[in-house]
């Protein structure tokens, strides 16, 4: 599986949101997209997911231009999880996961036992089996996000794209979701807000003012100078005495 | 990767099983609708014996030559039966249009009447016939179809510019835009009819605003039945896609729904259904609102079940609404829209108060 963006730009009403970004997602990697609010990471992610057509440039999925691919074929290889997708419908968690089978079904090849099994596995992967039959509006924010990830898994994609999936969640659920995504081991592109979460990525791509500032490992990129230049904060690394891992401390 | 590689080539055994598993509900639904239509034929102001009904149906369907009173037989065959069939078609068509609009617009209050689509169809039909727009080249139905699409476009654009693009606030904006649209198109319809010199040839203002099944004959059945069957097939074909709209258009696109194409096909289908029904019976309100919610309450949110259920309930509802409109006030026929509004408006209020889908 390869996912590549070439010279991607996106404009709306004369305003440039993303400008000339090229980026190659490696097979199996956990790639974090970081940047301040309005830096264009969400838009870039939506272009990579094929949900926004780039104003210029192109996205390639397995060397095929995504613009020429059928939505169904894209959805079989790649799943997208939004920041907060909600509904007033009185559906159960399981029904929400059923939607993930859409790209594999058609009016002539309807739901089968294997679809039931895939949905069950997806619910198990996010540890939501015990709440599978609960109505959607009784689930907490973290549970809803886990169900969305289960829906994405039911698509059986090779790549997961996620737009700040931990936003508005309490700290326990934030850690829980990120831990879950790491355990799934799929090629993952994730927009992140918290730089300490970004430290857990294989590589990070830093966005600033719609441009790609740099891409590389968190250790290489998250330096004092970058924090100052990109995020306008002072920061320094502290080593955790319990396991020797590094984390960031910030000051304005 | 492809655990379901046969997805495009369905197994014939699976298909056979599917057909068999569907045959029960399909026959059941058809039977219920037929029973309702039979009620529509039997019940009326003039009481006609059930044996006459059976003989008439037998004479016409099976080609028998049983002796019946020709006036009674004519009344049953040409008036009551056509009326009941068109009512059933109309109820089914409006109900499934409501299901589609509610799913696509993510709005519990969306339906052809409240969104002004019916009013637009009325105006289009009146423009084409009474005002003679297009010099007679545009038929009543084509005018209604163009009117329905225009109204839908106008209402959605208005809601969009009123800041209704976000899901949270869109509900209110689109209903307000729908009210504005309905009022405008209803006023236009009334104006055109009042202004036209040969208004007596045209159906009255009340027909276009409240609906009326009085003038329905066999040629109307020949339009209504094929349109509703075609619309039903198209909409059922897209049932799974409609499920995918549960979390909005981006979520639908990310599970493989070709969003623009599906929206275009389904909006055109609902406009066609609404236009066909309005051009035959005028604009009947609230069927598209009440029935989908009732069906959802009974069979759940999955569109594979919801659409057929809404079609059956809609058909039965409108046949009985028509019976009520004929017998409620002796010697007078109420516009059928009065009955549907009397039931629909309180339901509308209920949905508003509950603030979310059933």
TrEMBL record, chain A:
SMART domains: AAA. Coiled coil: none annotated. InterPro entries: AAA+_ATPase, ABC_transporter-like_ATP-bd, P-loop_NTPase. Keywords: ATP-binding, Nucleotide-binding, Translocase, Transport. GO terms for molecular function: ATP binding; ATP hydrolysis activity. Residues 3-234 form the ABC transporter domain. Part of the ABC transporter complex HmuTUV involved in hemin import. Responsible for energy coupling to the transport system. Belongs to the ABC transporter superfamily. This is Iron complex transport system ATP-binding protein. It comes from Shimia haliotis.
UniProtKB/TrEMBL annotation, chain B:
Signal peptide: none annotated. The keyword Transferase does not apply. GO terms for molecular function: transmembrane transporter activity. It is found in: Cell membrane. Pfam families: FecCD. SUPFAM superfamilies: ABC transporter involved in vitamin B12 uptake, BtuC. One of its GO terms (cellular component) is plasma membrane. It is a multi-pass membrane protein. The chain crosses the membrane at residues 21-43, 84-105, 112-134, 140-162, 174-194, 223-243, 264-291, 303-321, 333-353. The keyword Cell membrane applies. Keywords: Cell membrane, Membrane, Transmembrane, Transmembrane helix, Transport. It comes from the Bacteria. One of its GO terms (biological process) is siderophore-iron import into cell. Belongs to the binding-protein-dependent transport system permease family. FecCD subfamily. This is Iron complex transport system permease protein. It comes from Shimia haliotis.
């Amino acid at each position: 599986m390869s996912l590549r963006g070439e010279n991607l730009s996106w404009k709306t009403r004369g305003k440039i949101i993303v400008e000339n970004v090229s980026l190659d997602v490696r097979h199996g990697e956990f790639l974090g997209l970081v940047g301040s609010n309005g830096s264009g990471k969400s838009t870039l992610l939506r272009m990579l997911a094929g949900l926004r057509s780039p104003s210029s440039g192109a996205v390639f999925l397995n060397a095929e231009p995504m613009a020429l691919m059928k939505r169904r074929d894209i959805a079989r290889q790649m799943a997208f999880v939004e920041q907060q997708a909600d509904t007033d419908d009185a559906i159960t968690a399981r029904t929400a996961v059923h939607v993930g089978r859409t790209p594999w079904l058609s009016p002539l090849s309807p739901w089968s036992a294997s679809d039931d099994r895939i949905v069950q596995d997806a619910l198990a992967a996010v540890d939501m089996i015990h709440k599978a039959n609960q109505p959607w509006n009784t689930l907490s924010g973290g549970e809803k996000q886990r169900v969305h990830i289960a829906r994405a898994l039911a698509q059986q994609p090779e790549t997961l794209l996620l737009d700040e999936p931990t936003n508005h969640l309490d700290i326990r659920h934030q850690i829980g979701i990120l831990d879950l995504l790491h355990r799934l081991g799929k090629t993952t592109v994730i927009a992140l807000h918290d730089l300490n979460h970004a430290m857990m990525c294989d590589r990070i791509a830093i966005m600033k003012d719609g441009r790609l500032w740099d891409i590389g490992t968190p250790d290489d990129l998250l330096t004092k100078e970058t924090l100052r230049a990109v995020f306008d904060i002072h920061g320094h690394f502290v080593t955790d005495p319990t396991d020797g891992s590094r984390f960031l401390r910030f000051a304005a | 990767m492809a655990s379901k590689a046969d997805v495009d080539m369905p197994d014939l055994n699976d298909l056979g099983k599917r057909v068999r598993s569907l045959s029960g509900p399909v026959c059941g639904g058809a039977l219920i609708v037929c029973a309702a239509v039979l009620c529509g034929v039997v019940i009326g102001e003039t009481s006609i014996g059930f044996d006459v009904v059976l003989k008439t149906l037998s004479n016409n369907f099976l080609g028998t030559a049983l002796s019946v009173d020709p006036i009674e037989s004519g009344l049953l065959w040409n008036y009551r039966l056509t009326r009941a069939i068109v009512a059933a078609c109309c109820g089914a068509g409006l109900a499934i249009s409501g299901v589609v609009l509610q799913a696509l617009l993510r709005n519990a209050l969306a339906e052809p009447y409240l969104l002004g689509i019916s009013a637009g169809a009325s105006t289009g039909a009146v423009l084409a016939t009474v005002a003679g727009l297009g010099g007679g080249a545009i038929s009543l139905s084509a005018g209604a179809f163009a009117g329905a699409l225009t109204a839908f476009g106008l209402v959605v654009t208005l809601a969009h510019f009123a800041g209704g693009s976000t899901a949270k606030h869109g509900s209110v904006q689109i209903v307000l835009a729908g009210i504005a649209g309905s009022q405008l198109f209803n006023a236009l319809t009334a104006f055109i009819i009042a202004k036209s010199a040969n208004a007596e040839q045209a159906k009255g203002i009340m027909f276009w605003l409240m609906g009326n099944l009085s003038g329905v004959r066999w040629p109307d059945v020949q339009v209504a039945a094929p349109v509703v069957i075609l619309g039903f097939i198209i909409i059922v074909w897209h049932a799974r896609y409609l499920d995918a709209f549960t979390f909005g258009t981006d979520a639908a696109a990310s599970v493989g729904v070709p969003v623009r194409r599906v929206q275009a096909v389904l909006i055109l289908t609902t406009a066609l259904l609404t236009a066909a029904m309005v051009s035959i019976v005028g604009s009947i309100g609230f069927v598209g609102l009440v029935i989908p919610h009732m069906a959802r309450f009974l069979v759940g949110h999955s569109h594979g079940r919801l659409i057929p259920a809404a079609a059956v309930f809609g058909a039965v509802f409108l046949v009985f609404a028509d019976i009520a409109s004929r017998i409620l006030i002796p010697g007078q026929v109420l516009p059928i829209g009065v009955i549907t509004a009397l039931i629909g408006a309180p339901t509308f209020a209920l949905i508003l108060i509950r603030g979310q889908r059933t």
